[in-house]
Amino acid sequence: MKINLLSNNRVLLALRMVMGGVFILASVDKIINPSMFAMILKEYKLIPDILVPLVAVTLPWIEFFTGVFVLADIFTQSSALIMIGLNLVYIAGIVINLVWGLVHECGCFTIFGLNEPIGGFSIARDIVFILLSLPLLFYGTNEFTFRKKEKI
């Protein structure tokens, strides 16, 4: 019998805690200060100016609730797919800006004062986040159920 480490419930729980926490932490400062996030979004020059306020207000909440759902093990597969999709979009935005010669603040984790410029580290970090989300996509649950606690 072949056992897959990535499908182990404890491993999935650890991945849910890490990725849920990452997305919640990434969203908090953007939710608190959407005007600052809007300024960062404008620096990317990828979103029409008329849509920047809408994206600046909605994207952090998508990150927040995706993180909450993953932590709570609610629609984990769908949330992991959203996480992967967002990270792919983030990587594409960073790469396009680097190709254009634009170097500016990433806007990823401003809550801790981590205002690093876009670059290889940002891309590598997002790739790691994608890799950490893949087991949640493949082995997580996509259910919304209240489970009875088993007696020990």
In whole angstroms, the N-to-C terminal distance is 27 Å
Largest sheet: none
Query: Helix segment count?
Result: 5
Count of domain modules:
1
Q: How would you state the average pLDDT, rounded?
A: 90
**Can you write the helix and strand succession as a string?**
HHHHH
Broad structural category? mainly alpha
Into which percent range does the helicity of residues fall?
55-70%
What is the radius of gyration? 17 Å
Approximate strand percentage: under 5%
Brief description of this entry?
The chain is mainly alpha-helical. It has one domain.
Please describe what this structure looks like.
The protein is mainly α and 152 residues long. The protein has one domain (7-139). 65% of the residues lie in helices and 0% in strands. The chain is built from five helices and no strands. The model has no long low-confidence stretch (mean pLDDT 90).
Features:
152 residues; mainly alpha; 5 helices; globular
Layout of strands and helices, then pairs:
Elements: H1 9-32, H2 34-44, H3 52-71, H4 76-99, H5 120-139
